[in-house]
């Protein structure tokens, strides 16, 4: 068993005996209490991520993807109530006290957050922002932190790392700012990277470059938890795909298999809505997380809806080898 995370296996070649479950999420539920309602943002999720996996969580806006990522790293807003468990190593991250989370965050599990413009400190030199996690975790001296930062900047494509170190975020393009966020996430050499929409708002060429950088991490065996609504990014980066809808997972399996043969009508709809498939969007909108229907949450929009779907909430079932789906069609 390789615990360094650098196992060197290329995509799809994970010998069974060498695979270790790294994160195990069970019954995860996140509810936001607002003045007027309870918002069931994550309701209820079971999910495991093996060491070296690149798991992608895909789904439409508002389905709960970012909240899942924030829960995994313990940065949920104050009005969030969380239940269930997220096992990492010997710990349950849901129950862990903030001082334990501080040890894990950035060092073991790091997040590239969704909004690059807001995630960086506008009045702090980017070099200092990248080096900061090393100093917070007391992993090295200030001098070594600077060296490591310069090396990382270089490996992430900054032509003049010394000059980049002393600049401020606004002096960089969107693509370079995304690289800075990736550097902040990578600096402590964490086991797991959570990347939340890492290519949102970037033009096609820059997007390809950023995906390439993240792909290098995956190829080198780092565990990735990718959050996106970009099917192209999911197909390129992940080996497992979890389709999320209205706070729950509707389908999960090896990415290639899910894309080649989507089982859930929602996944089928998502794929049909891609430009390459002729842009046929799924009619209707997803239900509000304040008022989920009693039956299947996709039933109102589902072309294969049956009477049972409106009355009963389907559970996740094993449909074929290594695939699971939450749909009565496979019952
Ligand atoms: N602090 C909060 N208070 C109340 N509701 C919230 C809060 N944060 C998120 N939500 C709600 O939780 C639900 C899930 O939000 P989340 O940001 O996880 O969606 P998402 O899948 O990441 O969407 P997107 O693709 O747009 O980023 C949404 O209905 C959102 O409005
Ligand atoms: Ni999001």
Automatic annotation (TrEMBL):
Primary location class? membrane
- E.C. number, please? 7.2.2.11
Question: What is this entry's stated membrane topology?
Answer: Peripheral membrane protein
Q: Name one GO cellular component term.
A: plasma membrane
Q: Does the keyword Translocase apply?
A: yes
- Residues in ABC transporter domain copies: 25-271
| Database matches in PROSITE patterns | ABC_TRANSPORTER_2
One matching Pfam family: ABC_tran
Q: Where in the cell is it found?
A: Cell membrane
Q: How does it assemble?
A: The complex is composed of two ATP-binding proteins (NikD and NikE), two transmembrane proteins (NikB and NikC) and a solute-binding protein (NikA).
What's this protein's name?
Answer: Nickel import system ATP-binding protein NikD
Question: Lineage from the top down?
Answer: Archaea, Methanobacteriati, Methanobacteriota, Stenosarchaea group, Methanomicrobia
């Amino acid at each position: 068993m390789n615990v360094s995370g650098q196992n060197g296996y290329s995509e799809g070649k994970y010998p069974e005996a060498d695979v270790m479950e790294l994160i195990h999420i069970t019954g995860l539920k996140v509810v936001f209490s607002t003045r007027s309602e309870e918002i069931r943002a994550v309701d209820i999720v079971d999910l495991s991520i093996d060491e070296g996996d690149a798991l992608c969580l895909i789904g439409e806006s508002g389905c709960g993807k970012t909240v899942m990522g924030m829960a995994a790293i313990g940065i949920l807003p104050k009005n969030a109530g969380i239940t269930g468990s997220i096992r990492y190593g010997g710990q349950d991250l849901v129950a862990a006290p903030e001082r334990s989370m501080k040890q894990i965050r950035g060092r073991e599990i790091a997040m590239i957050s969704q909004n690059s413009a807001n995630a960086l400190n506008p009045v702090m030199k980017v070099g200092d922002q990248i080096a900061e996690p090393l100093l917070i975790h007391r992993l090295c001296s200030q001098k070594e932190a600077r060296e490591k930062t310069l090396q990382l900047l270089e490996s992430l494509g900054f032509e003049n790392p010394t000059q980049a170190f002393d600049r401020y975020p606004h002096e960089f393009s969107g693509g370079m700012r995304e690289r800075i966020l990736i550097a902040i996430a990578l600096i402590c050499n964490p086991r797991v990277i959570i990347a939340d929409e890492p290519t949102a708002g970037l033009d096609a060429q820059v997007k390809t470059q950023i995906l390439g950088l993240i792909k290098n991490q995956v190829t080198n065996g780092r565990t990735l938890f990718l959050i996106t609504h970009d099917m192209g990014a999911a197909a390129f980066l992940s080996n497992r795909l979890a389709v999320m809808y209205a706070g729950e997972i509707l389908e999960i399996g090896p990415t290639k298999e899910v894309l080649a043969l989507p089982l859930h009508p929602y996944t089928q709809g998502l794929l049909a809505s891609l430009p390459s498939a002729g842009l046929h969007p799924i009619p209707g909108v997803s239900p509000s997380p304040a008022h989920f229907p009693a039956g299947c949450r996709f039933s109102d929009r589902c072309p294969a809806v049956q009477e049972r779907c409106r009355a009963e909430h389907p559970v996740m079932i094993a449909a074929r080898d290594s695939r699971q789906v939450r749909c009565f069609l496979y019952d």
